[in-house]
Write the structure tokens for this entry.
Amino acid sequence: MSTRPRSQSHRIPGRGLIDRTKPLRFQFDGRSYEGFAGDTLASALLANGVRLMGRSFKYHRPRGVLTAGSEEPNALVTVLEDGQHTPNIRATMQELYAGLNARSQNRWPSLGFDAMAVNDYASPFLSAGFYYKTFMWPRAFWERLYEPVIRRAAGLGALSGVADTAVYEKAFAHCDLLVIGAGPSGLIAALSAGRAGADVILVEEDRRLGGRLLADQPLIDGKSGVAWAEGIAEELASLPNVRVMTRTTVTGAYDGGTYGALERVGLHLAPRAELPRECFWRITARRTVLSAGALERPIAHPDNDRPGVMLASGLRAYVARWGVNPGPVVVFSTNDSGLEAARALTRMGVEVAAYVDPRAVPVVEEFPVYAKAQVVGTQGRLGLKTAAIQHAGGISQVDARVLALAGGWNPSVHLACHMNGRPAWSEKIAGFVPVADMVPGMAAAGAASGVFSTAGCLADGLKAARAALDDLGIAAPDVPLPLAEDAPYAIAPLWAVDAGGRAWLDFANDVTTKDVALAAQEGFASVEHMKRYTTQGMAPDQGKSSNVGALAVLAEASGQSIPATGTTTFRPPFVPVSIAALGAGGRGEGFAPRRLLTSDAQSRAMGAPMIEAGLWYRPSYYPREGEADWRAACDREVQMVRKYVGITEVGTLGKIDVQGTDTARFLDFVYSNMMSTLKVGRARYGLMLREDGFVMDDGTCARMSDTHYVVTTTTAAAGLVMRHMEFAHQAFCANLNVRFTSVTETWAQFAIAGPRAAEVLATVCEAPELPFMGCAELEIGGIAGRIFRISFSGEMGYEVAVPTRYGADLFAHLVRAAEALGGGAYGMEALNVLRIEKGFLTHAELDGRVTAEDIGLGRMVSAKKDCIGKGASQRPELVAAGRAQLVGLLPVDPAHEISAGAHLYASDAKPLRENGQGYVTSVGPSPTLGQWIGLGFVVNGRKRHGEVLRLYDGLRGRDVPVQLVDPVFYDPEGGRMRG
Amino acid sequence: MRIDCPYCGARDLREYTYGGAAAYLQRPEAEAEAAADDAAWDAYLHLRDNPAGRTRDLWFHEPCATWLEVERDTVSHEIFATRALAGVRT
């Protein structure tokens, strides 16, 4: 393995937009080379005489670079950095940096000798549909044998298997005018709108502005196109209302003028820890100019895929922009731009060995011209050696290192098609062009709309900018039209050379003209069928260089015109987008926001494991020394509350502040029971129905004054209830004077539960004598707070609330005070057991399928007034007998454990769906009763207390008899909490 | 998709919560006859058109807590008009 840099043997002295004062060493397949700052990996390899850059997907054919842009189908490499592999990097996009280490793909053991190239010899058998036809039987072989083998043989690069730790970003931007592509049309459009004062975003995929001006270098206003573009770039940079985004590709067009764009921030540059790799932008534009240019297409002729075969436009870029002379060159062209390319190459000192054109072009040029001729074959196993040219005098073999194909231009209509618009076929340019309003607010300009001369592009760009500014109501400035070449463009399309042998259409997926013809012959004559049958256009390049050619071949094979054959659907993204960029920020803790209680740090310090409740983190239990597991802690905490006093933070409950002179009337409408009769200073349990008659949520309403209520919701339903109240108000009674404010985060609230609750309370405030379900505003430790005498444990209890910033202090104080009385903090496990013992409900029971009657609260739907859900709750099915009703569940053997989610059957019935009698919603180990207890729903359950059913949990292998009992296991009269 | 909020201007879809068809605004009268009532409630709760084209539905703009009725096209995604259910408060 050599480490000596190879000389840049194919550089043209003095030419190119590269910095020759900055040589850069890099590696490709373990060999060391040198290039210059400003190179891409592709241009640097070509400068070193390297044409072989990859192996094809299916046949493992040796391949070189075809293009100089993001549409590259062949030169896909893996870039290695610090143990990280990034596969399928297009060598044309990879900017050269010192130490770049790239590796070719899809070959073994080496790029020069690839064992799987045997596929190429088997190609007569590997035609389109081969897999579908061959690996049909025996059926069982597909998963175990065929698919693994095929997957290993085909495919592109591989991932390293190491997690990607790089940072990705997402960002949002808004503008008046989005200009996509900074060629001549885009530059002048952005300049015009920028001078008009509009907010402009100019997005360019390349690292520098200019587009084809950088490769073709026409004169504009008497100076080089490169210098003209630099001048515009400087002015744009000076305008504060213009944002220029280079190295950014617009990937998709969406509703409402929204565009996705992928910015390569650190990607393709030397690794820098402070830079994110990519940033995914969502840009919202009032108007858009699509000046994305056009993509040249190859010509399908036999063996048109050898390393050294490239597009004329790509070759021009390598010569003019990167000072590479990979020649001598044979140019095979069907149009005037190919002829102009041959002339330009000659001017730049590249030897044009032959110009081949099927048209009757004049033969007086500075290079040999073969008119009415075509290339019918090539030779050279790992790189082009000769091209066979068929002309009037026979077939000539011409030596060449490069074959430049110029099959015409396809306007980049992709983005215009993303909202299902169909482009129109233009006979004049033999290509698809955008039509008006394919994407609302977007207009195509320049080569993207089928205008190919520099002067035409500039005029079109100005026109598009003026139209956009008119729409926006902004006066367009008088930007003079620069002078530039205005050469006409004539083309006599030649899609495929009919000379036997294999002629490639889709290089990335190894699809030949024969495959497309076979598809048509076998009945896959619709373009969408052909695409799926042959896989044409389904590789990472999405068929950018092959779609129109394949369509033309299909049209011919099926005897239809091209416009009648149609075009495939272009979908986002325009270039591959990493999932990491789309999901930027969403990994690990970034996946969802974390909502923390004010006691969070103290609970963690006390060793409490946290459980997630929606976005909230709540303490599960507070372990003490000598406690073996959660169960021991839970038992102790439950008994502590029953005997002494416990403290827990209940701030996750939704709290809505409802105020206004009509508050009471409004609450009567959204709650099933009466809230208007509530006295000031009192709270009431409330049930809220959905309009379909089922229970939506429960909670308490506390009346702080005539016109001021504080209502609570369950943790999970806080947002839902807020939306629901706003809807009920705005949709049905907007005339009522009432307003809602979510104050969930405003108040820290703690439950003090247990026989000694009042003693703990007395340590923080002078509480008034509150009756059960009383509430008051008062000072707690000198802070304006609130107190509610409510209980979710069944014991004498209070909930105290203070502004959130005092929550941590209050929690610490309450826990200390409770501990002094034999109590302490309790967590969710104990809270759950306490409420099951009392038959109190959570969303485990209120699962959206139960009515008020089902849970035994039918009397809470007031007969005296209308409310949301009342009408529908009277529907026959909801009041019919045979509905499942809330019951308590006790294992017949107190040693048996039961589980939520289990189903209930008659003792002698098989556990089958049709025998179902009910199901279990909540369970817990009750230290009070000394056994597991549960809540559930059973058909006609309220009348069946005492019956024994079979509890079956197939998941956990549990099958135990349980007795149906009243759902209130503990203190059914409620004497303990009423006090 | 971007929806015009009368208070906040054009805002991205992500700020909105979908609230179902605008038919949801035609709540049956509370005091109707029982039999007619069942049919009316059934229609109100369950029977919805599923048009390919113009439709009217409800959206909640979370940041300003405004419920909107939006007239839009389910095929082209064009939005024709939006209005606040409660009218615009000034």
User: Anything to note?
Assistant: Residues 712 and 822 of chain A are 30 Å apart (CA to CA). Chain A touches chain B through 28 residues (CB under 8 Å). The two ends of chain A are 89 Å apart (CA to CA). Chain A has a mean pLDDT of 94.
